[in-house]
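User: Fold this one for me? It's Alpha/beta hydrolase.
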Amino acid sequence: MPGIEQVKFAGLGGTVLAGTVDLPDTQVRAWAVFCHGFALGKNSAAAARISKALARHGIGVLRYDAAGIGASTGDWHDGTFTTKVAEIGCAARFMRETGRTISLLIGHSLGGAAVLDAAPDLDEVDAVVTVGAPFEPRHVVHLFDHVLDDVLAHGAADITLGGKRLRIRRQLVHDLEQADLTARIASLDRPLLVMHSPTDSTVGVENAGRIFQAARHPKSFISLEGSDHLLTDRVQSDRAGLIIAAWANQYLELEDPIG
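Assistant: Here's what I get for Alpha/beta hydrolase.
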């Protein structure tokens, strides 16, 4: 049965990021990093279940909490989309330095947008997967649109999201508004798998179409029909992990690909 390893590694500005490595119980076929969605954390349904599913198919995965989330140090409200992208680089460096160089990047929701931005600068990454990702990072602004005027006028405002009390700062809004992934997706220069539910009411499936259109081949699209945005149904999240593992066979340098 796959196991886990709890790890900590250096983030940005002196922060320490807490992560979980889901370990295959057989020979490791590849290593991956999973980037969670906006304020979700490494133990969210999508992050934990997809990572565990991949481990069952021989792909070890590091999932981690962004600064200020879960067991990671720092203040979440100091973060921006740019820092989310940079933390992926921190995670990749940690895996490289511990002898587990990654070849696969996976991101859910805003984490999917972040891996699209991060991947072109990570030479070791051979393939990229997005799950329910927005084409434009500023899409997440709708989650706190009701306090946006206060944020822009006063510099910050508090919201409750998913049971968490969060402070939204002006710098986050500005960073999200300025992020443009079109050129980054076009320069990805590696295989891309876009996964999205056609009934996703949080990030519409049209986002997947725009990502797919902006990307160059090789690229693939898989419809996660029956799934919600958070992949709360275990059957659906396990299915997503199996699809990713099977898709990765043809693109990662695997000594023992699954049949």
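One thing worth pointing out: Residues 81-97 form the longest helix (17 residues).
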